[in-house]
Write a structure and sequence with these properties.
The complex is a heterotrimer of chains A (202), B (221) and C (192). Chain A has a domain of 127 residues. The radius of gyration of chain A is 18 Å and the shape is globular. By secondary structure, chain A is mostly helical. In chain A, helix 1 packs antiparallel against helix 7. The longest helix of chain B has 30 residues. By secondary structure, chain C is α/β, with parallel strands linked by helices. Chain C has 7 helices and 8 strands; from the N terminus they run E-E-E-H-E-E-H-H-H-H-E-H-E-H-E. In chain C, helix 2 runs parallel beside helix 5. Chain C has a domain of 62 residues. Chain C has a 5-stranded parallel β-sheet with strand order 5-6-7-3-8, sandwiched between helices. Chain C has a 3-stranded antiparallel β-sheet with strand order 2-1-4, with no helix packed on it. The chains are: A mainly alpha (202), B mainly alpha (221), C alpha/beta (192). The interface between A and B is medium-sized, with 31 and 30 residues.
């Protein structure tokens, strides 16, 4: 499984470097978008998995769910940082500034704050049982804010962010090769996340 | 019906008890009010004479309320835990009564904080409020949200061994969906611009969700 | 009846209880004895469902209320003795004659009622805590060293109340005090 993933990742990297045509006027560095989209995707997936395992823990009081919730949050924190940095670089190339509190930047920044708060809370509680309980409760409380932010923020700020790949009009405005590589990269990142979660358990 | 009536009596008893203790031990109140006053005064002092944009003023007001509230309500449960009264209270009162009694008390102290700091804020920054109704509604909905999220967060931080600064760190991301519309609406109440009722509805809906979630999650703590 | 069903609990490497199954019946005073650190207080907390076991289950009879007395459970320092008492009585919805209740534990509310709990002596505070326990009229009593810090008069009054109440209650008493042990109808000796 590990070898397969490494192979897939290398193949995708090669495809990005050699097959994907350079983005008009932005140069080779702009290909960082193939790194940005998958990491952003995984950080959201990790966030919801952490909350899911937190709920499972509160239902069952099985501490392995607490461990899973923590792993997901730790991995999610790393992915969200990578995604933010790569996003900021892409932003510099396209909009001329690393940061401008675009709705999506705001949302991802809130995600960083929540992950940070969650991990700080875990570090601050010394008793194992209590730590599992309070961090699960906090995880579930914080997950409530995300749908609201996704709903509120875009109404308040003007967005420059490109539409998501699957936008509401249902049209795909991309080269087919770009799209295939991007989807492959997202799948690859998700598999890496799942593999890391599984590895940490055993 | 009898049960809910009984719950209400417990909530009232806890609210009354907390209020009485708050009056006798004024330190928490005083700290919260003085924190707000110091923040407003220092900001106003550093901006004397200059024009400050309404948008910035609105954000400033909520930042002051947030951090003063953090100073005031972080100890909602922890003060009792330190004094050793929390186990007694937990044994004799229903969990939900404790949560809602404390939540009402937190809302009450936040209301007093705002009644104290808002006039000072408006005078020192020379703000002309165009719509008091909108401002009051926004503040009311905002305080309900902070009270709901803050009470559960205070319960969470009670078990932390390292507490310094933990409370605002945990509270801020959760209350952000309240602050963003609250700041916009406050700005509109200063400028008198047209506002969308839907923003108020979003705030009210999020308040309701926070109260419901606190109620459900508190049982697991 | 309080039922312990294969209850296990440990703190770190210290195993306090492993697979404990027992039934605690009402109508008598059940003493819980053992050396320091044997887990007397923890046993009471398990019985009162204040803490949750690692494995197994503690079952309480439906609808029964619990009252407890332990050094860890404090009263409100800034409230007066009377305010403390009426607050806790109100939580359980009981309207009772506080003065008479004070007399039963030897706490004269006419004089001590308006004194803040922080200014009461340790013994007087213990009497106040016992009055609170009586005021809530619970079905299960969990008493952790109830007469520590009390003078002879206080002890006698509390022993009298415990004996008078035991018929329709489940009473657990964690202690190493000889006089308190003598009060018990049954003893559970916890090994270290």
């Amino acid at each position: 499984m590990n070898k397969l993933l490494i192979l897939l990742t290398l193949a995708i990297c090669a495809a990005i470097i050699f097959f994907v045509p350079p983005i008009k006027g932005l140069g080779e560095v702009a290909k960082i978008i193939f790194f940005h989209v998958p990491t952003a995707w995984v950080s959201v997936i990790a966030f919801f998995s952490s909350a899911f395992f937190a709920a499972r823990f509160l239902r069952t009081f099985n501490f392995s769910f607490d461990k899973l919730s923590e792993r997901a949050a730790r991995l999610g924190f790393i992915f969200v940082l990578l995604s933010t940095i790569s996003g900021a670089i892409f932003s510099k190339l396209t909009w001329g500034a690393y940061w401008n509190w675009d709705p999506r930047q705001t949302t991802i920044f809130v995600l960083i704050l929540i992950y940070g708060a969650y991990l700080t809370l875990r570090a601050a509680v010394s008793d194992e049982r209590t730590r599992a309980k309070v961090s699960a409760v906090y995880s579930l409380l914080s997950v409530l804010t995300v749908p609201f932010l996704v709903f509120i923020i875009p109404r308040m700020y003007f967005s420059l962010h490109p539409s998501p790949v699957l936008n509401s009009s249902g049209r795909v405005e991309m080269d087919s090769i770009v799209l295939v590589v991007l989807i492959a990269a997202v799948v690859d990142a998700t598999l890496i996340f799942i593999q890391l979660m599984r590895r940490e358990i055993s | 019906m009898r049960l809910s009536n009984f719950l209400f009596e417990q909530v009232a008893a806890i609210l009354r008890k907390d209020f009485l203790i708050g009056l006798r031990r004024r330190a928490t109140f005083a700290a919260m009010m003085m924190f707000a006053l110091t923040a407003v005064a220092s900001l106003s002092l550093s901006m004397t004479g200059g024009f400050v944009e309404p948008k910035f003023l609105a954000a400033l007001l909520w930042v002051v309320i947030f951090f003063a509230a953090s100073a005031g309500i972080a100890g909602t449960f922890d003060d009792e835990a330190q004094a050793g009264t929390l186990p007694t209270l937990k044994l004799y009162a229903q969990a939900q009564a404790i949560l809602f009694g404390k939540m009402c008390y937190v809302f009450l102290s936040l209301t007093m904080l705002t009644l104290f700091i808002l006039p000072i804020f408006l005078i020192l920054f020379n703000v002309a409020v165009e719509s008091f109704l909108l401002l009051s509604l926004t503040i009311l909905l905002g305080l309900i949200g902070i009270a709901a999220a803050g009470t559960l967060t205070a319960a969470i931080t009670t078990s932390a061994t390292v507490k310094g600064g933990l409370f605002p760190i945990l509270l801020f991301p959760i209350t952000l969906p309240i602050f963003l519309p609250a700041i916009t609406l406050t700005e509109l109440s200063f400028t008198g611009g047209a506002f969308e009722t839907s923003s108020l509805i979003v705030m009210a809906a999020f308040d309701a969700i926070l109260i419901l979630a606190s109620s459900i999650l508190y049982d697991y703590l | 009846m309080i039922a312990f069903d294969e209850v296990s609990l440990s703190f770190g490497r210290r195993v306090l209880f492993s697979n404990v199954t027992l039934n605690l019946r009402g109508g008598k005073v059940i003493g819980v004895t053992g050396a320091n650190g044997a887990g007397k207080s923890t046993f009471l907390k398990l019985a009162g469902k204040v803490i949750r076991p690692d494995a197994g289950e503690v079952r309480l009879p439906d609808g029964k209320t619990i009252a407890a007395l332990s050094p860890e459970m404090k009263v409100y320092d800034t409230l007066t003795a009377r305010e403390n008492l009426s607050f806790f009585a109100k939580l359980r919805g009981k309207s009772i004659d506080l003065l008479k209740l004070g007399e039963r534990v030897g706490l004269d509310l006419e004089t001590f009622g308006s004194v803040r709990a922080e200014n009461l002596s340790t013994g007087m505070r213990q009497r106040l805590k016992f009055a609170i326990l009586l005021s809530v009229d619970a079905d299960i009593w969990l008493l952790d060293e109830p007469t520590a810090n009390l003078d002879d008069d206080g002890r006698e009054k509390i022993f009298h109340e415990v004996c008078g109440a035991k018929a329709d209650k489940i009473i657990l008493l964690a202690t190493n005090d000889k006089a308190e042990v003598a009060l018990c109808d049954e003893i559970i000796q916890l090994p270290l």
